[in-house]
Predict the structure of Helix-turn-helix domain-containing protein.
Amino acid sequence: MKFAEEIVVEEFLPTVRSLLAGELRAEGLTQSEVADVLGISQSAVSKYAHGDVTTNDRIAQDDRVQDLVNRLSEGLSSGDMSRVQALIEIEVCIRDLESPGSVLAALHEEAVPELAEYGASFRVHDPDSTLRSSERVLSSLRRGLRILENASGFASLIPAVGSNLVACLPEAEDIDDVAGVPGRIFDVKGRTTVPSEPEFGVSEHVATVLLAARRHGATATAAANIRYDTDLLAALEERGHDLAEFDEAGDVASSVGAAIETTPGATVLYQTGGEGIEPLIYVLGSDPESVAHTVCELV
């Protein structure tokens, strides 16, 4: 009797770790850094590097495994992907490869021939879990923030109250389902400064605008606020964006909702301010990266 988990431990993990260690080294990480990322010893990394660990060619040559290793090596080396997300992606890949006709299922059937008569797969982990979705949102948000940080001149678009780049879960209902930068993004001596890693539930204002827009038909999952300027609005309109104004002085959610209903395709919302209220522009988009690129094109 042999469990599928034994196939994973004996065949899949050594193969993926070996491939991933090699790719991370190729990305420029040191042996010590690779060990830290993978949660293994430096001696283990050395064994992988020198081919001293037995791997499975059928697993290594599977397209889904190769895609997994490429995504993980790129994300982990750049910092766009956390170790938690990497773990989730590996777990999901394992369950996918355990489905009928896939490589782990085939290896398991070869080890336990009696399984061949059963067509069922045993999916323990849900590929569409909230945890996986959350990590994907945070990963995308990190990439968007890196675009803003590296863009020359973005600091000039940051309003006095600060900017924020936010992104939400697919079925977002409230602020806890929206991730953003704690403390917002600020201009520090002409430099875009992101004070900390993105988290869920930390952005009230920009998150409220995004959620209100979505509740009234907008398909956007990300948004950013920048300073108000009629020239910026004109530039956005020239680039094909539909603009809609809302009243910041009233109930923001209701005002944004009314603006979206008036201009259903609006991807830029703005308010002209009032007593004690700074005028602002809000750019909506399908993901944090696209929003970041849109605002950076204005510089």
Summary: The two ends are 64 Å apart (CA to CA). Residues 118-125 have pLDDT under 50 and may be disordered. The first helix runs from residue 4 to 26. The longest strand covers residues 222-227.
